[in-house]
Specification:
8-stranded mixed sheet; Rossmann fold; disordered N terminus; alpha+beta; 13 helices
């Protein structure tokens, strides 16, 4: 027995010596540590701050590190942690507790030369009408992007040498503040409005504003008797009305390579397309209508998804019953459901479909391009009702990741776990300002703490099927249509038009297949719309099979006009104004 004990002791000592000789991460007080010691200068203010402290590390100085983080293979490093009541000139240490992407932990950063930058995404306390208090990053006119949000604190990039294998503390002082954004100016054709929403202000416990960029028709001032149909372009936060240019393209503009489409000179084409739209808009015979791009950012995202939700409030009602009538009154819209049409792509595609479904009498047609999942049995490539895990395919022995992003040839560029880990670095409690977090902020019930309930565990991907059932009953558009077709069908017949590429980047065509399967099966009445697929087109195809995606995506504002005019001719009620806005002008050259 004594010999056996001695052998075990010798073996244990040998094993300890072996582990001491290799580079293995052990969570103990004796490990080698890399830490960032961060403070902010008192010149930025003397009020203690809450928010998300973010540190970006880049191996190059091509641009500031805060602009080099993302989801694809060329991303640089990002780490984040919460701070509360952080006083100026007081140090905060970011170390092993920080959430990182794509490297999970700060102490695993390889040795080398880096450019480091700190940013504080500042939070604000909202005292909700239900008594809950939530701390969130308010939008400041930038569309929920922490790296350029006005008022956020940041440091200038500093060059650092990370030793790798030694305890190291790197000091960073934030002494810069991102400047406010200058609002766009009105022109003859483009107007900008902002209005207080009583509905949203009541929900959030403080004044909340929504707005829009408005494109007025040619001859608007010269024809005060005219009242116009309304085309509502849904989509991500627009800084100004996009794609409308009153001057010819700049002849000295240098063509730039567009990596998304692999095409040289897309910037030149964009100026030409914008000018062509202006010439078409002001031509003698072009139909006269008003186009609006809605601005409705929330503390969770660059827009609200245009529906009522537990965590964001009654945005659907605010837009449909407050903002749109306000615009119609101000700019002589017809102001009736038969003369309103919605369209958009991606997020905007889902929104166009959703408002048509949830407010069937208020709109007369939805043109739905590359929409976010219309059926949650294909939440991209996840069935949230049956699958157990969002990140990994069910398997006894393999750990096979679910892809979330591909090119038009099917080459995978990121997984669902990648996207969610990136979001987790930027903020917890759905505060990243990114895609998965806003889906939960829109579709999920509100938790006891005032924040949205997770559909799945952010780290493990395990799906909460009780939350999935809530999503199903409230926001699964295919399910809702099928459940309520007896009442919705007569109101939606002829109004639903859906377009998607069959190689959509985010697998959004999967849900469209399921939606089409239901719509084609409808009777009493038949849906009488269209579902069209673009062969090998990726995100965000909108129904144009004659042009490449980088051109067709610039033509949303004219693509559906002919179909809208036919719909008006077919459905306008007796006595409706279908003539005052059909005047001709001299046209522009």
């Amino acid at each position: 027995m004594k010999i056996l004990v001695n052998i075990l002791i010798i073996a244990a000592l040998a094993l300890l010596a072996f582990y001491a000789s290799i580079d293995i991460h052990v969570d103990s007080d004796d490990e080698n540590k890399l830490e960032f010691v961060v403070s902010f200068d008192s010149s930025l203010g003397d009020v203690p701050q809450d928010g998300r402290l973010l540190i970006a590390l880049a191996t190059n100085e091509d641009e500031e590190p805060r602009f080099q983080t993302g989801i694809y293979a060329d991303t640089q490093l990002l780490f984040g942690m919460n701070v509360n009541d952080w006083a100026p000139t007081t140090d905060v240490v970011m170390g092993k507790e920080a959430i990182g992407f794509p490297i999970k932990a700060i102490w695993d950063v390889p040795e080398g030369t880096y450019y480091a930058q700190a940013v504080l995404n500042r939070y604000h306390d909202y005292h909700l009408a239900d008594g809950k208090v939530v701390s969130l990053p308010p939008d400041q006119g930038e569309g929920q992007h922490w790296e350029r949000k006005p008022g956020n604190y940041y440091s200038k990039p500093i060059k650092v040498e990370i030793s790798g294998g030694k305890d190291q503390k790197i000091s960073i002082v934030m002494d810069q503040k991102i400047e406010p954004i200058t609002p766009p100016s009105d022109t003859k054709y483009i107007k900008h409005i902002r209005m207080k929403s009583e509905l949203l202000s009541k929900f959030w416990g403080e004044d909340v504003y929504v707005g829009a960029h408005i494109l007025l028709p040619e001859g608007f001032a010269e024809h005060p008797e005219a009242h116009y149909p309304l085309m509502i372009n849904h989509g991500h936060f627009p800084a100004d009305f996009d794609g409308f240019r009153e001057t010819p393209p700049d002849p000295d503009l240098k063509p730039e390579f567009n990596p998304r489409f692999g095409v040289e000179g897309v910037n030149v084409i964009e100026q030409q397309e914008s000018y062509d739209f202006y010439r078409k808009w002001t031509s003698a015979d072009f139909p006269r209508f008003i186009v609006i791009e809605i601005q409705h950012p929330t503390p969770y995202y660059d827009d609200s998804y245009a529906v009522n939700s537990e965590s964001q409030g009654p945005y659907g009602d605010a837009l449909t019953y407050e903002l749109i009538p306000y615009i119609e009154k101000m700019f002589r819209g017809i102001g009736e459901g038969w003369a309103r049409f919605t369209y958009g792509g991606s997020t905007g595609g889902w929104e166009a479909m959703a408002v048509q479904v949830f407010y069937p009498d208020e709109y007369n047609g939805a043109f739905v391009a590359c929409p976010d999942p219309l059926d949650f049995r294909a939440y991209m490539n996840i069935n949230i009702y049956e699958d157990k895990n969002a990140y990994w395919y069910d398997s006894q022995f393999m750990k096979l990741p679910r892809p979330a992003d591909r090119d038009y040839l099917g080459n995978v560029r990121a997984s669902h776990y990648d996207y969610n880990r990136w979001e987790a670095a930027m903020g917890d409690k759905n505060r990243s300002g990114e895609q998965y977090d806003i889906w939960e902020a829109t579709y999920s019930p509100m938790g006891d703490d005032g924040y949205p309930v997770r559909l799945w565990d952010k780290e493990t991907g395990v799906i909460d099927h009780k939350v999935a059932e809530f999503w199903k009953e409230h926001y699964d558009l295919r399910y809702i249509l099928q459940r309520d077709w007896a009442t919705l069908g007569p109101k939606l017949a002829g109004k639903l038009h859906i377009y998607v590429g069959d190689m959509d980047t985010y697998y959004l065509n999967n849900a469209v297949y399921l939606m089409e399967e239901f719509l084609e099966s409808t009777t009493d009445p038949h849906y009488d719309g269209e579902v069209i697929y673009g062969d090998r087109f990726e995100h965000c195809w909108n129904g144009d099979s004659d042009n490449p995606n980088y051109i067709s995506r610039m033509r949303y504002n004219t693509m559906y006009v002919d179909k809208i005019m036919k719909r008006i001719e077919k459905t306008a009620p007796a006595g409706a104004d279908v003539t005052s806005w059909r005047y001709k002008t001299g046209g522009k050259q």
